Model the fold of this input.
Amino acid sequence: MKILDRYILTTFLKTFFPLFIIIMFILLLQTIWLFISELAGKDLDFSVIIKFLTYATPRLIPMVLPLTILLTSIMIFGNFAENYEFAAMKSSGISLQRAMRTLSVFIFFVGIGAFLFSNTVIPSSERKFVNLRKNIVKVKPAMVITPNQFNDLGDINIRVSEKYGDNDQFLKDVIIHKKAARVGNFTVIKATDGELKGSIDSDLITLVLNDGNYYDEIQQNSPKQRKKLPFAKTHFEQYVLNIDLSSLDNVDMDAQQYSKGYNMLNVNGLRNEIDTLSIQVNTEYKSADDDVNRRNGFKDLNRNLKIDTLKKATKDTLDLIEERFSIKQKSQIYNLAFSNVDGAIRRIQTAKRAVEVKKRALNKYEMSLHDKYALGISCVLLFFVGAPLGAIIRKGGLGLPIVIGVVLFLSYHFIGIFAKNGAEEGGIPPFVGSWLSTFIIFPLSIFLTYRATRDRGFVSFDIVMQPIRDFFAKISSKSEKVKSVNDVSDKQLDVIIDNNTMIAVEKSRKDFKENSSIALTMFIFLVLINIIITLISKGAGDSKLMLLTFNILGAITYIVFHIKAYINLKSFYSGLKGFLKQPSLILFLVVGIVLFPLAYFVYLKRSNRDLDSVR
Done:
């Protein structure tokens, strides 16, 4: 490995690992906050909490790893460009492609490692994570009963509105559902207040209830009696209930009872489960079709008849019924037809609900399979987005690169979420739901790499905008000729701008170009992403809130850079005050809110022309 390759790789790794740890730590805190209700008040050992965090860490890799690669590549290559290290490389005959070669190989192996990690470690950790959560739920709470929620304790579910007293032994507004052999809540106990007696940390708790009622639904064998919904009600002044909690202390935190989730399987397991669910869906379709045809007698309709020998009916079947049957018979026929149709509709609706549930599960399994491949490829593509983008913006460190990187990743991430929501509901194929965000960044990576390797800016609309500019310039030349330019040229003969003012003006012009370019990028991203998300997230209720959140964050960023561009433009013309006629800057601020591309190109051209005229 050459010295330059080693230098670029070590610089990348020195930024990559700390950034990876920081992002992982932030998302791990979010995970703790998300599951805090399952951990708090359980009297868990420290080792159990460490296991919880350990099992939760791998499931964050699909978000942390691509974001880290994107931010690191933008920061490193932006720092190289800002410190003129790329200029030194190019003067030595080393191109950007050559500088990226070693890191490209490294990221390629990172992508392969990401796939292997998602196929082996993540399913195993997800299985242990889910089972650990299920086991934590079974642990005896430190305070036994938590107010304002149902607590599953032994053979009862209990809810209280308030606990008070020195040891929280007094309860208020008690509701208890007693469990039974049959499924359902058939026995309910309500009391005004109650008291816990005995040691809260012991295996046996005595609950004394005061001033309440005991309700018990009576299950009848006769359907007629069952329709009357009989129940027994008893009022009591005091009711004593013993609760045995000994079984709750014997929870094995390492027990693995759940292993069939779509996030708990590797590629082979997912393919087998997909085949099984596909067979179940097809079987449900065939079963519903056979049931409806059997109910209607469709298969036996022409069993003993030859179709070619039948004469064509001259009258409608309903007319024949009117002519040949009595009123009683017609009523029976209509009732039978209604019953058959109603039964067929109910069977179709039942099959539809069953198929929808299985299809939703099938879509999740298919997306989980594709996600394992998409993770590695997205890591590679995001590197080819971040590295050339850093070389283009020529800014390193934790400022502008972080803003651009986060915006790009949020766009990528939210598009993936919206696409998966649409694919889960069957709006788009699962393959598209998993790969859509990757498909979008693929041409972006090619475009940015192409622009960076040819030392061009982020975006250039000259092909589209030049004919428009020429058209307006032609109209302007007919009416004013070259009035403003000549006036400025005349003033240049009389007034000479001092060097310090010229430096400040050029700096304001440079800052305006930079901030307005970012605002233009944000404007285009917001428009395009909203169009894409609107198309792929129809009918997804949860997506509306996420889309609103994304729009708010994007709009705030866009407005901030738009205002900064306005301030830079105002500072530019303030420095040239007295040397040329100042355009309406309020127009740039107002029109730019909704038509920023138009305002950007008009005022960028005007500022270029004005700066050239005073030089």
The chain has 18 helices and six strands. Residues 249-256, 461-465, 478-495, 538-543 have pLDDT under 50 and may be disordered. Residues 327-393 form the longest helix (67 residues). The chain has four domains: 3-135+368-419, 151-249, 267-367, 462-614.
